[in-house]
Every structure is written in C-alpha cells, then in structure tokens.
Design brief:
single chain, mainly beta, eight-stranded mixed β-sheet, 13 strands, 13% helix
Length: 249
C-alpha cells in the first residue's frame, strides 16, 4: 500500500498510515485506534471478528459451495481460483429503535380508502465504513456473538486492514437514511400512495467493528467471477454463478 500520509501513534510512536478520506485509523503495531483529524484516542467501542480460515480452507469452502446447490454447471467446482484476498473491512453497527407512522391511499379496491399505520422495529443496522467500496451489506448477517475487543495480534500478516472513512455521526446519519427508505418500501406493501410518513429514531449504541471478509476471484470458461465469503463463519455472502448454457447441466 502506498503511503499518502501518516501520523505518529501516540501510544507506541509508530507511524499510522492512512489515505485521503479515511477518518479513523488503527495502528498496526499496537492496535491503538485514533481519529485522524484530531489525533485523539478512539472513544467508541472497537471490536473485531476472528478469521477462522486459512487460504487453503477458504478455497475448499468455495469449492464446496460450487459443487452444491441448484443451477450450477456440473464442472463448476473445477473452476480455476485466481485470487484469494482476506480483507478486514470496517463496519459500524448502529443499534436503533425506529417508529414510523404513516398515512396513505389504498387504491387496490374501489373506491380507494385512506389508511393509517405504524411500523415499529429494532435494528442492528450495518453500515460499511468505506464510501467507494461495493459490498452487499444487506446480505451480510454479521455474527455479532463472536466479536471481541480489537486485537491487532489476531490479524494475519497476509491480510489487509482498511480504515474507516466515516465517523460515528456520518454512520448514524447514513443508517437513518437507509432505514427511512426501507420503511417506505414496507409502507408500500400496505398502501399504494403515501400522503405522509414520519419516522422517529432512538439510538442505543454504535459499535465500530472490523470483520474478516474473503474476496475470491475464479475463472470459468475464460470468464472471471467473484465470490465473497465471511471469514468468521464460512458463509457465502454473495457468489457469482455463470449463466446456464446448453449442455452444462
């Protein structure tokens, strides 16, 4: 990784590397986490999930996924693995209570009627703390029971650790926006046209967490595809499957 800028760790004196846009950084020598703009110690909970897979075990898990299930080519498991990268991604887990009250028009009957309702939910809402990284956040069921306090000594030497590009305030704001959009989707299951919707949020907690994610690329019939695997559980978060073609099944 090219060093764009660095600050000195106030705990051990080692350089803390970071790139433009990153807000929260962790010292890879002692695990001390700081807010880059101020150099102050990180005051929120910083947790991590442990990776339980070697590169060889991760590949075996991917090949088992390839050889099971439906709508997969018979020779799928013979695909060539091109890359196996373990990345500790930064996430914010926003624990929040949400109440949305709404009013709208139900037009599926005649004559249309006005309906009112309320959605009341409790979430541990996941926010990827990287602004330009594509990741299927809603498909990732974070195994929070396995989290431990962040410990740099648990990080594999071959793994890459990304810093956060969001602070707590930005993460909470993004969570609220996403939840509002999700509640609009839920409302549309009950009514056809929204007249008004009002959402109230009660933040309980915000945890900063690094999770081990395997990014695997493979080649099948000269085409490249990607699989994303949870390093803590071995679950496939998202996997590209080659489109079916005549004679493969």
């Amino acid at each position: 990784m090219s060093i764009v800028k660095e600050i000195k760790c106030s705990n051990c004196g080692a350089p803390i590397e970071f790139k433009p846009g990153e807000i929260i950084a962790t010292c890879k020598y002692c695990g001390y986490t700081v807010v880059i703009e101020t150099g102050k110690a990180f005051v929120f909970e910083h947790s991590m999930l442990l990776n339980k897979y070697t590169p060889e075990q991760a590949e075996d898990t991917i090949r088992n996924w390839m050889s099971s299930g439906f709508l997969k080519p018979r020779d799928f498991a013979k695909s060539k693995i091109l890359e196996k990268n373990l990345v500790y991604l930064p996430f914010w887990i926003i624990t929040i209570n949400v109440i949305t009250q709404y009013k709208g028009i139900f037009e599926r009957i005649s004559p249309p009627i006005v309906k009112e309702g309320k959605i009341e939910k409790h979430y541990s809402w996941l926010i990827l703390a990287r602004k330009a990284t594509e990741f299927p956040t809603r498909e990732y069921d974070v195994p929070l029971k396995g989290k431990i306090p962040y410990d740099f000594r648990k990080i594999e030497k071959f793994a890459k650790v990304l810093n956060s590009e969001m602070d707590r305030v930005e993460a909470v704001t993004k969570a609220k926006q996403e939840i509002e959009e999700f509640h609009k989707f839920l409302i549309k299951q009950d009514i056809d046209r929204i007249i008004e919707a009002r959402t109230e949020f009660q933040i309980e907690d915000a945890v900063y967490l690094h999770a081990p994610i395997w990014f695997m690329e493979y080649e099948y019939k000269n085409e490249r595809y990607r699989v994303i695997m949870d390093g803590a559980t071995g679950a496939i978060i998202k996997g590209d499957i080659p489109p079916p073609s005549f004679g493969l099944f």
